[in-house]
Design a protein that fits this description.
By secondary structure, the protein is of the alpha+beta class. The protein has three domains: 51 residues, no CATH class; 148 residues, Endonuclease Chain A (Endonuclease, Chain A, 2-Layer Sandwich), CATH 3.30.870; 72 residues, Orthogonal Bundle (Arc Repressor Mutant, subunit A), CATH 1.10.10. 54% of the residues lie in helices and 16% in strands. The protein has 13 helices and twelve strands. The strands form three sheets. An eight-stranded mixed sheet has the order 3-9-8-7-4-5-6-10, sandwiched between helices. Strand 1 and strand 2 form a beta hairpin. Helix 5 runs parallel beside helix 7, helix 11 packs across helix 12 and helix 12 crosses helix 13. The chain is elongated, with a radius of gyration of 24 Å. The chain starts with a helix and ends in a 9-residue tail after the last helix. The relative contact order is 0.09. InterPro entries: Sig_transdc_resp-reg_C-effctor, TrmB-like, Tscrpt_reg_LuxR_C, WH-like_DNA-bd_sf. This is Helix-turn-helix transcriptional regulator. It holds the Pfam family GerE. GO terms for molecular function: DNA binding. One of its GO terms (biological process) is regulation of DNA-templated transcription.
Length: 317
């Protein structure tokens, strides 16, 4: 609608509705949303609104979103400190909810996960970690892998696509597959979780690239929800042994994903953190995509990606 108004600054609501194939009521609601985003201002045009110049309006909108993301990051860091405090208190007092235990500290987390691995009989499912961990945290999980191999427990894992660029992690995952495990990758992951026999779930909490605690849960409705999430992610993920495929207009999964993150208002730095890649990688993707689509701006790149099917309208929500 914003593009249509920029192209037809004097259009009436009825003309915009006809051009967009929408009802006039939908157009009026859209104008209110554009007003909230400060992309249109009251004017003397037939619609009652005047579009702000795209170069000004979109830049201002992105600046506001970046400011909001910065505030959100501060809130997240504050939440991590609060989670650490709560986990510590829960660890001292014990869990008050049946089949839910709060584990404080990396040692308690890995002790519990190791115990689950020893008892796992049918299937071991993992998603993540969802962000980069330090060497100590990665090494702490090695004994669990050894237990699963020794017991020949069927294991499936979904890891970040960025591990393909890490020789050490790549070699570790290849060994896991040699011992019967199955690994797939996704550009970003919503959570780090471990699911044993679909009956016991562990959700580690990470702070400063280290494990600071976890929630351990045996509640059936919760573990079923995690199993459903794993199944959905597994369907979307790419086998680790498979070359990175290109789909949707010859775009790789990584290129599709970064386009979605930009469409949702994330900055290059925020997208890099979400995908656990360097800022340089995201900027290199930006240059490649801009050249491929022949775009003159990030806004035009998003519009062209939508038009070509590289991303979908729901990806922007």
């Amino acid at each position: 609608m914003y593009i249509a108004m920029a192209d037809r600054p004097g259009a009436k609501v009825s003309e915009l509705a006809e051009h967009l194939g929408e009802t006039e009521e939908t157009v009026r609601e859209g104008l209110e949303r554009l007003s909230a985003l400060l992309l249109v201002v009251p004017g003397d045009s037939a619609s009652g609104w005047r579009p702000v110049d795209p170069e000004v309006g979109l830049a201002a909108m992105l600046a506001r979103q970046q400011d909001e993301l910065a505030r959100h990051r501060l809130q997240v860091e504050g939440s991590r400190l609060e989670v650490t405090r709560l986990l510590s208190e829960r660890g001292r007092r014990g869990a008050s909810v049946p089949d839910v235990e709060w584990l404080a500290g990396a040692e308690a987390v890995w002790r519990h996960v190791t115990s689950l691995a020893e008892e796992c009989a049918d299937e071991w499912l993992t998603v993540g970690p969802a962000e980069r961990l330090d060497t100590a945290a990665l090494e702490a999980g090695r004994p669990v892998d050894e237990i699963l191999r020794r017991r020949r427990t069927p294991a499936r894992a979904i890891v970040l696509e960025s591990v393909r660029n890490d020789p050490g992690a790549t070699e570790h995952l290849r060994r896991a597959e040699e011992f019967g495990g199955t690994v797939r990758t996704l550009p970003s992951l919503p959570v780090w979780m471990i699911l044993s026999d679909r009956r016991h779930a562990v959700v580690p909490v990470v702070g400063g690239h280290s494990v600071i605690g976890a929630m351990a849960c045996g509640v059936e409705s919760v573990t079923e929800a995690f199993a459903t999430l794993f199944a959905r992610l597994w369907k979307e993920a790419v086998p680790f042994t498979q070359a990175r495929p290109r789909t949707r207009g010859d775009l790789s999964l990584q290129e599709q994903h970064v386009l979605r993150l930009w469409a949702q208002g994330l900055t290059d730095a925020a997208a890099a953190r979400r995908m656990d890649v360097s800022l340089r990688t995201v900027r290199r993707l930006s240059e490649k995509l801009t050249d491929r689509f022949g775009a003159q701006s990030r806004f035009q790149l998003g519009a062209l990606a939508l038009a070509s099917g590289g991303i979908r309208a729901e990806d922007v929500a």
